[in-house]
């Protein structure tokens, strides 16, 4: 046995002990106050911005000076920074008013209910911890009646406890769905919505004029869902553990004294700092995983879209290589992430479960070994057992809660990744709707021109006045285009590929911005665009003719199926109704109809809508000349003004004006004399045919000359 302390040393120690015991209530209050302040500071440090003054903190809303007001450029494809920093909280603050629009919204009510059940679960946990101690104490004291009574209470508390846990899971899922619905509606309003001030949705510009979001489908379908689920879970995974830490430790302080709590806190915080330093960048990993998944999905979509061309060109081997490359990039990233999660989980469990558990056992033993210090002297074995079990239960709960607080930083980092991608999508959609684009520019791009804007005025006629035709890459196709078309003045547009024919139509249709000059045009509902490869939607055969109208709109217009059949007669397509199974037959029409049938369906669509202007872009290249004549004759009967791109001489007679590009930035706009142009075309073809015969005639002449020389030589030899 250790030797007793000498009286000279025992006296000061006794004095200190008595002095401490006399002032212990005040010391306890001070220690608890320090603990509360430290807990608040620690919680703030867990969730505080990691860096608020880094150069990358400029959000996507703060574009480079060269990308404002419709300029194309900047740094397309740059990765958004993913950290729990001021930028993350700024993005989240921008998204929250969309997710919870008001205090009276359904989402606010769900959040309030979720908060109530989180608090109720904590109170139930405190009650169960105390009840657990009383059950064990009844066993130690051998009191069967107390044991049975406490077991009955245990069974009774199971009803609210299980209901509370189920409601928490249910409300969290409901919150995730509500958040996703709100955010999806907002994104779809920008992506496909239409309003009077901002025009049509940004889906076309997002795909063709901006490089920031090449995987919009991935963002809308998957990333929004992941963001909503992570945000719905993060509230319960942060608020509940923080509340648990405070309440459990407060109860522990009352049971074992604030001294043990302070000691435990020091040890836990030091190991927690180590855990945080060793935590991998899970937010960046989550963002990169979404990006790689989107790239793989896009590659698959491209193959399905161009399946016929790939099959005919025998490109399956190359496409498989591209798919393999995309998949293995995703697989390697997933394997890397799993390895990081595995070792991080091992370290986390070793610290949180085993190290903190060992320290906690020592804290729970304080009332047993230092009964006088904590006011537990004179308690019997049952009381000490009850206190130990209760305190251990509280300690395990507090340790688990604190571990979840630290673990929530990892979840918060993942949420930061989803937030960065969703916020980037919203910001890009807003920019595109406002005419601000970021596009990789051609070497010959005119950046000064891209910062300008022309005027667009609604008018009955079509007029371009000094309008530059600029490609999305910034290449100037035509420096200044001027022409005008009044109703009834059908315009034919010709020229080589890439000269600006389709670009002019895209500006006219409002798809491309006007970088200068003046454009006068009718409202969009007075135009109908018929491309070379028409779009056929999912739906019935009737839907293909009346697109984008539905059956209700058709009936409101007073159009019947019989009138639709008459329309098909003008495009020589009436047999298709019986052949395909009637007007209500539904299938993938883009694959079941031939190219000629698709073009005739598109022309029938034009006859159904009867707009004032029709933009026809090589839309009769797959139909016969007699069907083409019938269709254009009916267009003339309906009084539709045509703006046509075609190289077919058979269409010249239907047009009065011609806009001819030379591919070098120059053009001619003049009246079209169809007969004279046809005559010149025939003469040109005749001369070209004769010129093709010239080499053959020259070769034959040389052969005849050679034969003649041979005969002259033979005659000379015979004469000699």
UniProtKB/TrEMBL annotation:
InterPro entries listed in its UniProt record: AAA+_ATPase (IPR003593), ABC1_TM_dom (IPR011527), ABC_transporter-like_ATP-bd (IPR003439), ABC_transporter-like_CS (IPR017871), ABC_transporter_sub-D (IPR050835), P-loop_NTPase (IPR027417)
PROSITE patterns listed in its UniProt record: ABC_TRANSPORTER_1, ABC_TRANSPORTER_2
GO BP, sorted A to Z: fatty acid beta-oxidation; long-chain fatty acid import into peroxisome; peroxisome organization; very long-chain fatty acid catabolic process
Superkingdom of origin: Eukaryota
Main location: membrane
GO terms for cellular component: endomembrane system; peroxisomal membrane
A single MF term (Gene Ontology): ATP binding
CDD domains: ABCD_peroxisomal_ALDP (cd03223)
Start and end residues of each stretch annotated as Disordered: 50-78
Domain ABC transporter as annotated: residue spans: 462-707
Coiled coil: 680-707
The family this protein is said to belong to: Belongs to the ABC transporter superfamily. ABCD family. Peroxisomal fatty acyl CoA transporter (TC 3.A.1.203) subfamily.
UniProt protein name: Adrenoleukodystrophy protein
């Amino acid at each position: 046995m250790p030797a007793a302390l000498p009286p000279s040393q025992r006296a000061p120690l006794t004095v200190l002990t008595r002095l401490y015991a006399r002032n212990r209530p005040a010391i306890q209050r001070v220690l608890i106050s320090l603990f509360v302040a430290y807990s608040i500071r620690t919680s703030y440090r867990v969730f505080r911005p990691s860096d608020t003054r880094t150069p990358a903190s400029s959000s996507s809303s703060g574009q480079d000076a060269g990308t404002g007001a419709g300029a194309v450029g900047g740094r397309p494809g740059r990765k958004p920074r993913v950290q729990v920093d001021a930028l993350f909280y700024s993005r989240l603050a921008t998204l929250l008013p969309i997710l919870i629009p008001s205090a009276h919204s359904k989402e606010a009510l769900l959040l309030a209910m979720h908060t109530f059940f989180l608090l109720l679960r904590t109170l139930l946990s405190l009650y169960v911890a105390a009840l657990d101690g009383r059950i064990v104490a009844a066993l130690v004291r051998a009191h069967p009646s107390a044991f049975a009574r406490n077991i009955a209470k245990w069974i009774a508390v199971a009803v609210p406890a299980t209901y509370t846990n189920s409601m928490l899971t249910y409300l969290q899922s409901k919150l995730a769905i509500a958040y996703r619905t709100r955010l999806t509606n907002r994104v779809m309003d920008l992506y496909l919505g239409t309003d009077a001030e901002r025009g049509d949705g940004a889906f076309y510009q997002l795909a063709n004029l901006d490089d920031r979001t090449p995987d919009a489908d991935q963002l809308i379908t998957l990333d929004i869902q992941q963001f909503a689920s992570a945000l719905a879970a993060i509230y319960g995974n942060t608020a509940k553990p923080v509340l648990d830490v405070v309440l459990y430790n407060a109860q522990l302080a009352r049971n074992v004294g604030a001294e043990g709590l302070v000691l435990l806190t020091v040890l836990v915080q030091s190991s927690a700092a180590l855990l945080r330093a060793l935590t991998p960048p899970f937010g960046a990993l989550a963002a990169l995983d979404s990006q790689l998944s989107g790239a793989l999905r896009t590659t698959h979509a491209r193959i399905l879209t161009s399946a016929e061309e790939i099959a005919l060109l025998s490109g399956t081997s190359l496409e498989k290589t591209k798919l393999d490359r995309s998949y293995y990039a995703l697989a390697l990233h997933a394997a890397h992430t799993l390895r990081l999660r595995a070792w991080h989980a091992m370290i986390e469990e070793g610290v949180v479960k085993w190290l903190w558990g060992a320290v906690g056992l020592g804290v729970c033993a304080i009332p047993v070994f230092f009964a006088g210090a904590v006011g537990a002297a004179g308690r019997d074995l049952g009381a000490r057992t009850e206190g130990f079990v209760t305190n251990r239960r509280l300690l395990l709960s507090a340790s688990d809660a604190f571990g979840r607080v630290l673990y929530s930083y990892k979840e918060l980092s993942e949420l930061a990744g989803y937030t960065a991608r969703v916020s980037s999508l919203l910001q890009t959609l807003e920019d595109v709707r406002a005419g601000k684009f970021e596009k990789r520019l051609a070497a010959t791009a005119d950046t000064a021109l891209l910062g300008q804007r022309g005027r667009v005025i609604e008018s009955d006629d079509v007029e371009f006045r000094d309008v530059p035709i600029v490609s999305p890459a910034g290449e100037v196709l035509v420096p200044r285009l001027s022409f005008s078309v009044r109703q009834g003045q059908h315009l034919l547009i010709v020229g080589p590929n890439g000269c600006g024919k389709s670009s002019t139509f895209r500006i006219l249709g409002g798809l491309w911005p006007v970088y200068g000059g003046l454009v006068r045009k009718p409202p969009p509902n007075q135009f109908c665009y018929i491309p070379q490869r028409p779009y056929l939607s999912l739906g019935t055969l009737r839907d293909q003719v009346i697109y984008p109208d539905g059956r209700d709109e058709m009936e409101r217009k007073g159009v019947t199926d019989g009138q639709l059949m008459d329309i098909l007669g003008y495009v020589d397509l009436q047999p298709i109704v019986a052949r395909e199974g009637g007007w209500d037959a539904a299938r993938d029409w883009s694959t079941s109809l031939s190219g000629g049938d698709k073009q005739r369906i598109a022309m029938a669509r034009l006859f159904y809508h009867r707009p004032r202007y029709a933009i026809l872009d090589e839309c009769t290249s797959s139909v016969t000349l007699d069907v083409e004549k019938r269709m254009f004759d009916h267009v003339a009967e309906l009084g539709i003004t045509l703006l046509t791109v075609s190289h077919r001489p058979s269409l010249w007679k239907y047009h009065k004006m011609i806009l001819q590009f030379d591919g070098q930035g120059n053009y001619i706009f003049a009246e079209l004399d169809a007969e004279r142009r046809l005559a010149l075309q025939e003469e040109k073809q005749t001369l070209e045919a004769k010129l093709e015969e010239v080499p053959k005639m020259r070769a034959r002449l040389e052969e005849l000359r050679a034969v003649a020389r041979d005969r002259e030589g033979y005659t000379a030899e015979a004469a000699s």
